[in-house]
Every structure is written in C-alpha cells, then in structure tokens.
Design brief:
There is one protein chain. This protein has 184 residues and is of the alpha+beta class. It has helices at residues 28-46, 92-112, 115-122, 136-139, 148-162, 171-174, and strands spanning 51-57, 71-77, 80-86. α1 packs parallel to α2 and α2 (92-112) packs antiparallel against α3 (115-122). The longest helix has 21 residues, at 92-112. The chain is globular and about 55 Å long.
Length: 184
C-alpha cells in the first residue's frame, strides 16, 4: 500500500534536479482542494470513479519551503493504480497546483476526445512498477549512476531481445519493468 509519508515516488519518473518558483497564486489549502475537486470531477466526467487517493510527500506541517517539496498523488482509476508526481516547483502548494492542472488536462481530453484517448494518455501515469519493486537501473541491468548513453543502449538492447517479432520475444516481455531478464 502506498504511504503518505515518507514520499513514495514512482520509479519510472526521475526526480527534478532544479526547482522553479512557479507562478501559481494559490495557498496550500486551496491547492489541496483543487486536487481533490479535480479528481472527483475527473471520475464523474469519465464515469470511472477515482478511489484510494493517497497524497504522498516528505512535507511536515508548518514548512512553507521544505527541502523536498515533491508531491505524488496516488489513486485508483479505471481499475488500475495511477500516480501523478510533481517536484518541479519549490513549494508543495505549487507542485499540488501543477497536479491539479494535469488532472484538468485529462478532463479537457474527455470533453474534446474520447475515453479511449484519456486511457491512452493515462498509461503514462500507471504506477508501474509499484513502490518497492525493482528499480529502473536493475531492470535495465545498468548502474544507478549510468550515463544517458548507457541507459539508452541498455534499453535498446533489451527491447531488441524482447520484441514480439523476435523468436523468444513477446508483448509481455516488452513490458521491461515486469519481464525477467532474457538470458540468451
């Protein structure tokens, strides 16, 4: 189960190395309410209720600018756990407001597109792998400090080995985050 504290950041999204001030004119209580309202409205608009909402952070009450202002909102939608994490901004309020805008963007997709379009865009927010499972570097069989070129090379090698068009590959094996390493 996802915890509110300490921050449960999804392995598939790297943490920001620089933080901006942001131009949001909101308070922490307002940003929290905006996220709650957006999730409720998104569930209503999609006819797929949002449940099991967990707001995860390293923030303690009373700190306007904590050392780690990152926020990850975990929830279930359409039968799957999703996570929208943001740590781009210097304050928890700004990161929450950004999450609110991301959810609102999915609502716009619903109004002007289809549920299938939203499902496709929400795939990027699936909580795969879940907290506590294999890290991205162990999945790619590289060091945690690997350079971008090494990461790309490892990904291409594994994708080539596991591609459905290969004799030993399959669609499931292409889901590198869950497939066992191919030893051959």
């Amino acid at each position: 189960m996802t915890q509110a504290y300490p921050l449960q950041w999804p392995d598939f999204i790297p943490r920001s190395t620089r933080r901006e001030a942001g131009k949001f004119k909101t308070t922490l209580p307002s940003a929290l309410q905006n996220v709650r309202d957006s999730l409720r409205l998104f569930g209503s608009d999609s006819s797929k209720p949002v449940s099991d909402i967990v707001l995860s952070s390293n923030v303690s009450l009373g700190h306007e600018k904590p050392a780690d202002p990152g926020i990850a909102v975990w929830f279930k939608w359409d039968g799957e756990q999703r996570c929208i994490p943001v740590d781009r901004y210097q304050t928890p309020a700004a990161n929450l407001q950004a999450i609110h805008h991301i959810i609102e963007a999915r609502r716009v997709e619903l109004r002007h597109g289809t549920l299938a379009l939203v499902r496709a865009s929400m795939r990027g927010f699936q909580a795969l792998p879940a907290p506590g499972s294999a890290s991205w570097w162990s999945v790619l069989q590289v060091e945690a400090t690997a350079m971008p070129e090494q990461i790309e090379s490892a990904f291409k090698r594994l994708a080539s080995e596991r591609h459905p068009d290969r004799p030993v590959g399959s669609h499931d094996m292409m889901l590198i985050s869950t497939a066992p390493a191919n030893k051959g």
